[in-house]
């Protein structure tokens, strides 16, 4: 039989990853880093956190080997350590959604569909078919830094907060398929609602850039 103390030590080491992910805000930081590397200030702003708190969360994630750093001039930029971290994050979401009814309730409230009025969506296979047929314009509504770090080939970049004043950049007679970060990203929902209110034909991709990358589909602009 194996040594009980050594067995406990092994499982304690494994638990370091679980403990690092045991915070909603740290999961939010992983979600952001799955889109593009960022400095502490940019992450703090995007996550609605103070700089000191953000730094502490990032150090916890780094000690668990989930994020890595590089220097860009005087700025320390954080990124996911590897694609397996993105896959782990996506799988955690899937398990939580399957096991915890509260996840779905929180999702519908956040995405603004708790009244049952969801925006129309298509899956990745249908999007690829429509793109191949030249039937749609693909619209990336994430912040431009995320678009620059990698996007669906051929996509047009208009961040959702700029969409009201940049509608003229989209052809009026072609359907728009909007996408954002992932299955729990509200930006594409907001874009579709805005486009429909302006009389445009619009749907959204059912998930987003995280799932697109994990599916091994082509990514343009990635370093």
UniProtKB/TrEMBL annotation:
Keyword DNA-binding: yes
Domain Rhodanese: start-end pairs: 132-221
NCBIfam families noted in UniProt: HTH_metalloreg (NF033788)
InterPro entries attached to this UniProt entry: ArsR-like_HTH, HTH_ArsR_DNA-bd_dom, Metal_resp_trans_reg, Rhodanese-like_dom, Rhodanese-like_dom_sf, Thiosulphate_STrfase_CS, WH-like_DNA-bd_sf, WH_DNA-bd_sf
Phylogenetic classification of the source organism: Bacteria, Bacillati, Actinomycetota, Actinomycetes, Pseudonocardiales
A molecular function (GO) term: DNA-binding transcription factor activity
The protein, known as: ArsR family transcriptional regulator
PROSITE patterns given in the database record: HTH_ARSR_2, RHODANESE_1, RHODANESE_3
Oxidoreductase among keywords: no
Domain HTH arsR-type: 6-107
UniProtKB keywords: DNA-binding, Transcription, Transcription regulation
Pfam families given in the database record: HTH_5, Rhodanese
């Amino acid at each position: 039989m194996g040594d009980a103390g050594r067995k406990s030590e092994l499982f304690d080491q494994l638990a370091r990853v679980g403990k690092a992910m045991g915070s909603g805000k740290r999961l939010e930081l992983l979600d952001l880093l799955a889109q593009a590397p960022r400095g502490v200030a940019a992450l703090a702003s995007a996550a609605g956190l103070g700089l000191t708190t953000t730094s502490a969360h990032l150090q916890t994630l780094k000690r668990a080997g989930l994020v890595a750093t590089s220097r860009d001039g005087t700025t320390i930029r954080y990124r996911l350590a590897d694609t397996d971290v993105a896959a782990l994050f996506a799988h955690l979401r899937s398990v939580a959604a399957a096991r915890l009814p509260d996840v779905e309730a929180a999702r519908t409230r956040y995405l603004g569909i708790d009244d049952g009025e969801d925006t129309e969506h298509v899956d990745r296979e249908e999007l690829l078919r429509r793109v191949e047929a030249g039937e749609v314009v693909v619209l990336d509504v994430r912040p431009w830094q995320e678009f620059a770090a990698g996007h669906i080939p051929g996509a047009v970049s208009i961040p959702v907060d700029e969409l009201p004043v940049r509608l003229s950049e989209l052809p009026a007679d072609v359907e728009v398929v909007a996408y954002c970060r992932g299955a729990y990203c509200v930006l594409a929902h907001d874009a579709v609602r805005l486009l429909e209110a302006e009389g445009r034909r619009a749907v959204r991709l059912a998930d987003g850039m995280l799932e697109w990358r994990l599916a091994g589909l082509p990514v343009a602009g990635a370093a």
